[in-house]
Amino acid sequence: MYTRCSVLKQIVRNFVVPNSYTRLIRFQSSTSQVVGNRFPDSTSKVDNRSNPGDVFLALTTEYNRKRFVSSDLVTNAIKNINNTISERLSLLILTAAARGVHHVTPEKRVELLEEAWKALSEKKIRLTTRHYETYLSGLNENGFIFDADYYLKLIDSEQIQASPRLYSLLLTQYCREGNTDRAQKFLKMLKERNVSIDEDIFAALAVCQLKLGNDKGANDIIQIMKERGLQPTISTYKEILTALISEHKLEQFEYYFGQMESQQRQSTSSTAYIDAHFVVILLEQCISYKERPIFDLLLNTLKELDHGRMPNNLFNLAVQCVTNGWHESAIELLQIQTELDIPDNVESPYQGIHGRHWTLFFRQLFENNESHLIDTYLDLMMQKNLVPLDGILRVLYTSSIEDHRLPLSYLERGQELRHPMRTNYFYPLLLKSYSPNTCQNWTEDERLRLYRLLDRLAIPLESLTYSRLLQQSFHQYYQNNFTPLLEMLAQNSLQSILDRVCRLLLMDIRQKTLPLNITQQIAPYFRLNMHRRQEEFSRYLFSVMAGSNKTDADQSEAVYKLIDSISKDLSTEIPTLKHEFYLNLLRISAQQHQRDLTNRLADRCIQENIKLGGSMNEIDLLTGYVLPRDTVEKLARYKPGELSWKEKLSNLDWSKANLTTLEQIYQDSKQDGRYPFDLQERLLSLYIKKKSIQQAFAILHEIVSSRQKIDSAIFHRLFNLVTVKMGDKTDSSKANHENDLKYLCELYDKSYGLANLPCELTFRLANMALVNGDQDSAIKIISDRINSNLNDETYHYLMEFLKLNFSVLTSDGLMSIGNLFLNFRINESVRKFWNLFFDILLEKTSAQDVVQYYSDAMRENSSVPYLHLFELFISKDELNRLQDVVDIATLQHGPRNVLHDLGFSLIQSGKIKQAEKIFQTPWLKARNDRINLHSLLFADSNNLDALINAIKLTRNLPDVDQKQLYTSAIRVAIRLNKSDVVDWLCKEIQEHQVELDIRVKKFLNAHLLSKGLDPLKIKTEDNELENEQNLVSFEDTAATVEEQTKMSARN
């Protein structure tokens, strides 16, 4: 927790100036701009000076001190170029434009360099070889492709004494372009001019070979160079490595880079060495040519080198990474240069952004209109345990950006990412939201968003900071009417900030910066139903009374009136509030040894007829024996010798106590502001037993207000009391208690969760919601139950619920329930649900709507059963819709399965001719698992005719196995005592040589022998039960086989 002094220091340090505490007045007074000036920086010194000497002096001083200057400083120097400028100064301008401008891209440096060159040419400045070398090398280093022929002619026409370095720059340009013919002609020209070939020209030749993809040729040139006594220097390798970067050749780059490292290890005096500056140059080339793999390799190398003296170089790289979208690399580069500044004693897992480079970086993003990248950097920096809001908000609060929505949105995004929040982040926004100059730009919704953010903080507002910075504008904005603010916070459940605002306003009243009557606005939002809050509020009232003069009767009277008005306003919610106030005031005044105030309070209680205690002894203990005996007698509720409610309760025999006695004791305890929980539980149990709903919920409210935990069994009894059993007629007396039922649901949901309510009560609750016309709540209750615990009991009550309420449910509501089952695998219970669902849906809508729902459901779950839809549409003669369902099901399940199901559905419905056409489809082969499934379904319904027809119609299907059909038909025929059918089946089995289970065959042989007929002469399946001596009966065995076959077919 911040101390009072450190809070203000931190505000000023973070949002005004880096190290000045004495400028708090500037910060406090400029509420419209939130903060004072920007951070002091050398770049801010740039202005349009009228004296060219001052301009050039500023450029020279800045470049010599840092080797980096701002673009404004270079631009100003270019504008002041005249014909008297010295050679040294003109070279400095070219060098600064080419290499020394920070915070800009290579394209911007090339632009400045060309402007400087143009200005020098227009002013007729004598340009020497060094000028051309500086200019062309600057273009080359910034990745600019220039016309080498043009500058060669210009050098000749101006009679410039060209140096090998200048020739190498032109040759390098030819080689970078891949113009080998022009490079060869250029070499021939150099030979004719007797120009000595140095390492720069060799490097250009090696680059030419690499451009052509001739790695061996490049190595040969390096070898020739060594044979002539010229060792490759850092300049040589820079050209070669730059060419490899431009060609995106990682392997060759690693080879030559390894050569440099090897050469550096072999000799300490090597001219080819790798340092941080050299790596930064190569990194810039990687950015120019968008070569990410080599960039990552060099960045890892840079981390191991001494980079402590080049923060501006690293910052430039980070800015250039943004243009390529290499945001992670930009963060790494900025992190590298700030690692040295991190204090050793930082214990937080999140690293604060130390140094000013982060702030400059985010300012650069805003100035370049790239604020859309801020969210990206928030995400990436949080992944690295950085605290990006430090830099982002510093930029927003110290710049000319007036849009308060930007920091507000970034704070909200930071909260989503669980960014550590500081209270100081919010003070500038609070100042803007209430400042007379800027408050009109804020909407109430935006203030609400700000308060939502503050609500999450441990200390939303610090009292000293509030009184120094916010208090005056806060009071001025609300004009002593704080109810809208408090109501907004209460409605949005921002309890933390609501409590803090209430306490700050009470502090202002105590300090007499607000009138006393404001307390009445605060009281309804101070949660005075809690004893702890009542005591806190009483201490505030005591401080107001104690702060006045002993003879100040007006102040005391004002407090008394305030207590009366607050108690009256809250009498419905807290009927004993007035009693509690005076009780706490008496106790506090006695503890503080304010005897006069204690006597005045006691007299007021007598005047108001407020009884404070059960007995005189209790009052003496409360007031420290300072009150006269006659006063104590008047304050006591019970006369001497009369039992108090506590004594009655302690002597009570619970087994013999009747309801009237308990209610009397409870009323006496409420007068003392006490709510014995055991007595409340007993009364609640009796009211539930008597089915007194109104009294039960009245005492339930009192139990909740006293913050007691209620057992789940009591809740279940209350639910049972106010709901109706499934299938019973709705009791009008219970239907009138809709609000009580909603209150009960809220309590149970907070304590145990509605999903944990017993299944029967859950559906009774949904049934009551539907009866009361709240279908959405009913469906939500059912949805929560199904998603949390879908078992057989849930299926049972859901089916019962649908059967009872199908006429009340709308089609949309029914579809919402159906959608809950789209994610479940199909089993017998789910199949029964879908059958009932489609029955109800067809009654409530049209056949076309049912088909449309089935089509949509199949996209979510291809296993939604369609067999019942066949039966529905066949029975309704909806042949077009039947064809639609067949088409949809065929896409998911294949034509063989669907045609079998359709044929058997037609058989079951008695449509034999249509079924015959289905099974006579030329290409249709038997699908025996579907045949077995339908034979079992027919057997379950004792549909013998369907089984006989199925045997006849499927007989000619290729690869058909009718064993299960015959087995099921025999079983049903025996069950129905159709011996003639059994005889016919035996003839069919004998004639078509149907293979049967050994048990079935033995049973049929016994049946035939009983009629004097020959046994069946057919093959049987091998069965391990064939040799068993004691065979089980056919009925039991057939039933077992049937169940096994059914399960395997459905799975």
List the helices and strands and how they pair.
Elements: H1 4-15, H2 24-29, H3 52-66, H4 71-79, H5 87-100, H6 106-122, H7 129-141, H8 148-157, H9 164-177, H10 180-192, H11 199-211, H12 215-227, H13 234-246, H14 250-266, H15 276-288, H16 292-303, H17 311-324, H18 327-338, H19 357-367, H20 374-383, H21 389-397, H22 405-416, H23 427-434, H24 444-455, H25 463-478, H26 483-491, H27 495-510, H28 519-522, H29 531-547, H30 553-569, H31 577-591, H32 595-608, H33 616-623, H34 629-635, H35 645-650, H36 659-671, H37 677-689, H38 693-705, H39 712-722, H40 732-735, H41 738-751, H42 759-771, H43 775-788, H44 792-805, H45 811-820, H46 828-844, H47 847-860, H48 867-875, H49 879-893, H50 895-908, H51 912-919, H52 928-940, H53 944-953, H54 963-975, H55 979-992, H56 998-1010, H57 1034-1050
GO molecular function: mRNA 3'-UTR binding
Pfam family, one: PPR
InterPro entries: LRP130, PPR_rpt, TPR-like_helical_dom_sf
